[in-house]
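Hey, I'm writing a tutorial for new members on how sequence and structure tokens pair up, and I'd like a real worked example in the thread rather than a made-up one. If someone can provide the structure for the chain below, I'll link this post from the tutorial.
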Amino acid sequence: MFFGKDPDTDEDHCPTVWVDRENADLAFQGWRADDETEKECPEVGPIPDTEAVIRIPARMVAQIRKACDAAERSAAELH
């Protein structure tokens, strides 16, 4: 289920957050992380080919909180 787009970017290139209706997982669309961030992330473990480091703007925190709350409620309903 769609939850929100970054309110400060255009309609075609927006970081976005969803909650999966089937399993309550969060899904994010974001900007690719910059080189410095990409270099720092593997310090805590490898990044598999099936994963990516993305950047979500802090101005989306309220939307992400709402999505987290919805995911938590959905997950509780699944169990």
